[in-house]
Amino acid sequence: MSATFIRILNFVPLAAAIAFGTAELCRAQSTTAAAEEPVKTVEVEMRNFAFSADTIRIQPGTSVRWVNRDEVGHTSTADEGEWASPLLGPGESFTQRFDEAGTYTYHCTPHPFMRGVVIVEE
């Protein structure tokens, strides 16, 4: 056997290992990317003692982020107890993900006249 032929034989397993490893890495990245769908987030501001949207309509899997743009503390509290934010100071936010279809009414605990509705549609 020639020296060149022996070098080629030694290179073949290395090339196969590199190709196989690269293919596995690409498949793993592709599977991970397909499994992770981007989460959509809708923002509702708390401003002037009101929620910026009285009613919002979203799809399952969407998150709602309440942001306090007021000078006083507010909450986002579900009327039926599904969620309750802490008291949010100016500039603070709270996020809730909605996975199930339904109508969710909510209010601000210190200011119960502040009311809103999240409708999760199929």
Task: Name the CATH superfamily assignment of the largest domain.
Answer: Cupredoxins -  blue copper proteins
Determine the strand fraction and express it as a percent band.
Answer: 25-35%
CATH architecture of the largest domain: Sandwich
Distance between the termini: 70 Å
What is the total tally of β strands? 8
How large is the radius of gyration? 27 Å
Order of helices and strands: HEEEEEEEE
C-alpha geometry: globular
Subcellular location: Periplasm
Keywords: Copper, Electron transport, Metal-binding, Periplasm, Transport
InterPro entries: Amicyanin (IPR035668), Amicyanin/Pseudoazurin (IPR002386), BlueCu_1 (IPR000923), BlueCu_1_BS (IPR028871), Cupredoxin (IPR008972), ET_Amicyanin (IPR052721)
Cofactor: Cu cation
What does this structure look like?
It contains one helix and eight strands, in the order αββββββββ. With 122 residues, the protein is an alpha/beta fold. The protein folds into two domains: 1-36; 41-120, Sandwich (Immunoglobulin-like). Strands 2-1-4-6 form a four-stranded mixed β-sheet, with no helix packed on it. It has a four-stranded mixed β-sheet with strand order 3-8-7-5, with no helix packed on it. β7 and β8 (115-120) form a beta hairpin. The protein is globular. Mean pLDDT is 81; it is low at 4-34. Keywords: Copper, Electron transport, Metal-binding, Periplasm, Transport. It is found in: Periplasm. InterPro entries: Amicyanin, Amicyanin/Pseudoazurin, BlueCu_1, BlueCu_1_BS, Cupredoxin, ET_Amicyanin.
